[in-house]
Amino acid sequence: MENTDQKKEWVGWLKAIIITIMLAFFLRTFIFATSIVEGESMYPTLQDGERVIFNKIVYTIDDPGRGDVVIIHQPPKNYVKRIIGMPGETIEIENSQLYIDGQAYQQHFLSDEVIAQTNNFGPLEIPENNYFVMGDNRLISKDSRNGLGFIPRDDIIGKSELIIYPFNEFGWID
Prior knowledge:
Shape: elongated
Membrane topology: Single-pass type II membrane protein
Oligomer: single chain
Number of domains: 1
Largest sheet: 8 strands, antiparallel
CATH architecture: Ribbon
Radius of gyration: 21 Å
EC number: 3.4.21.89
Structural class: alpha+beta
CATH topology: Umud Fragment, subunit A
Strand content: 25-35%
Main location: membrane
C-alpha cells in the first residue's frame, strides 16, 4: 500500500513538473520574453546591461503606438527603440524641435538637454506599414535617422514593459 501511494505521489509531481515546463515554454514563446539592453542609446530610460521583459502578444491585438518602447528584430540582433512616427506621417526636427505633420510634438520622456542637442532632420514621410524610431539618447543612437531606416511593422516583435534586472532598477518602462 505504501509503495502505491509513493508511486501516485511521484506521478503527481511528474505531471506538475511537465505542466509547469509546458506553461513556461508557451509563455516564453508566445507571450513574454526577455532582452538585454546593449549600449546607451536609450539612456536614461534604459541603461546598458539592463534586462527587460517584453510583451510579444500585445501587437497581435493592437498596433504599436507613438511613444512605445519596442523590440525590433533586424538580424543579426534586436534593437530597443522608441516609436516616434507612425505610418503616413511626416517627421522633421528643426532647431531641436520635433514636428509630426507640421505640429510641434512634446517629448516628455527626454530631458531639455537632450532635446537641445538633437540635430535637424527631414522632413521625411513615413511609408505605410512602417514606423520611425529613435533612441532616447539622440546623440549616439543608431535609429531611423542614421542606419536603421524605416521599421517595417513585421520587424517590431514586442513592447518593452518591465525592467527586471538589476533589481534596484526594477519597474515599469515609461
